[in-house]
Structures are given as C-alpha cells and as structure tokens.
Amino acid sequence: MARELKEVQGIIFKRQKYNEADVLAKIITKNYGIITMLARGALRPKSKLGAALLNFSYGTYIIYTNGHGLSNLRTYKNIKQFNHIFTDINKNAYSSFILDLIDHAFIEYQHIDQYYLLADFALQKINAGVDAEMITQIVQMQLLAAFGVKPELRHCVICRKEKGNFDYSIKYGGVLCSDHFYTDHNRLHLKPKETAVLRTIGLLPAERLGEITISAQTKKATRKAIDQIYQATIDLNLKTKKFLDELNLLT
C-alpha cells in the first residue's frame, strides 16, 4: 500500500523520546484504531509539534502513512487537552490505565469501533470530575468482550432467569441465579447489589449510565470482583494498574 497523507482524529496517550530530538507518540483514533506516530524534531526548541503530543491532548493530526508500522506526523490542527487529567495524579492514573487496557486489547490499525467512543466518554467524564474509579470499572466491564471474554450478564448462565438475586461465576463466565449458586462453590460471593452493579455497568451503553453513585463499600467490592475476573481470564500485568493499586492503598 502506497504511503499517503491522512487526517486522523484522536487522543494522545503515550509518548517517548526517540533518537536525539524525535518523539514517538501513540494515539487512539476514531477511524484508524491505534497508531504510533513519529514526530521528527519535536524536541527541538523551535518545533511546534512537541506541545501537540503531550499525553491527553486530542484533536486532528495529519500523518503520512501506508496503514501499518510507524506513521510520520506532518502537522496538526485544533488541538486541545484534558487539562484536569493532565494535572491531577489520580485522574491521570485512572485515565492512563483505561487507555493502556484498550491498547492491549487491539493491534495497531485495527478498527476499534465503539471502544474509541468509550475511551472518549471516559476521559470526558473523568476530566469533568465524575468518579474516576466508577468510570474505570465501566470501561473494564465493557472492554472484556474486546479481549474475547464476553461474560453473560443478562440472565443466569444455567436457567436463563433474568430476575432475582445473582452472583458472578468465573467458572461459568457469567451470572448465576440463587437457584444455582450450589453449582459453583468458588463463585465470587457478591452481595445482590454488587452483582447488580456489575450487570448494569457491563450491559448498558456508557452514554446511558449517567451519574452512578454507589457506596465506597460497594465500589470496593466491585473493584475486587473485576480484578478477579481479569486475573482469571486475561491475566494482564500492566504497570498502569500496579500504580493505580498503589494509589488506592494511599486513599
């Protein structure tokens, strides 16, 4: 495929120095998935590229690409930044983890469809001051399908009952109704309200969830449950998650 100029809309989420004055920046885009851009000379004092490649900057980037490998950043326009995420260590940590998760779910240039919208939704909410942990849990539950682990949350995995008290079973890959708790002694033993939260944030489109307010105790329980699901089914070892866990120990 011949190289050509393309305009991509997206969010910068990783950058690193490359050679003496160049920068490699990863961007999650609406139409082309995740792309790594090479910005030559971005670290030189007179370069205008560097400021447009700060983490959590977003806008339109003009790249020279053939659809795989490194793309060359030529210029940009209408660049803005999620300022509160950039300057707040907690918002930054949650947002970095969210984008790191998405980065590990897809290969470069793979269409990510609704997950770009999910990422944009999450960062907009976190930047606006909405509970960052709850937003992160929403993303984690909805991103499971992208890793090939789509839990059954609509009904009991055994009898298909949709109403009643439920618990989550990693063994069966979804929720069990109380009639079938006996089938998995290692189910997560969540309270009905905690399982209800997991079902809600995993099933409803993010834009319909609005403001979710739950107690600190429930949020801690759902965090632990989601961590168990990820550890048992995907087993990622992300530095962003480790840092986030360390922050949570301090709060």
UniProtKB/TrEMBL annotation:
Keyword terms of this UniProt record: DNA damage, DNA recombination, DNA repair
**Domain of life where this protein originates:** Bacteria
List cellular component terms (GO). bacterial nucleoid
User: What InterPro entries does this protein map onto?
Assistant: ARFGAP/RecO, DNA_rep/recomb_RecO_N, NA-bd_OB-fold, RecO, RecO_C
Per UniProt, residues of the DNA replication/recombination mediator RecO N-terminal domain are: 7-82
Question: Which is an annotated Pfam family here?
Answer: RecO_C
Q: Which Gene3D superfamilies match?
A: Nucleic acid-binding proteins, Recombination protein O, C-terminal domain, Recombination protein O, zinc-binding domain
GO BP terms, alphabetized: DNA recombination; double-strand break repair
Does Nucleotide-binding appear among the keywords?
no
| Role played | Involved in DNA repair and RecF pathway recombination.
Per the record, the similarity remark reads: Belongs to the RecO family.
What name does this protein carry? DNA repair protein RecO
Q: Which organism is it from?
A: Lactobacillus bombicola
